[in-house]
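FAQ: What does the model actually see?

It sees only this:
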Amino acid sequence: MSIVDCITSFVDGRVRLRHPALKDKATAELVCTVVGGVEGITAVQANPLTGSLLIYYDAEKLTREQLLELAEQGAAFIPGLNEEEAASAETAEGEAA
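And it is asked to produce this:
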């Protein structure tokens, strides 16, 4: 699952995403800390109940493309965010053998 697949709303200055891994409070807090440290991000709010993340950013400092690229790169280091991709890759490897 790509970060783009998780986006439920994207307007200049604000993006909301949902992912099952964000229902884990520790993961949600880690994501908020990591995302909040990016230059151009002005606020981050996670809701572990719904598995959503709301990011406010300065559209003059970060373009949509830059924000998406940073999100894809950062997702690789967040526990649980890429487990579905890893499971798919393992399944594909097992079928190929």
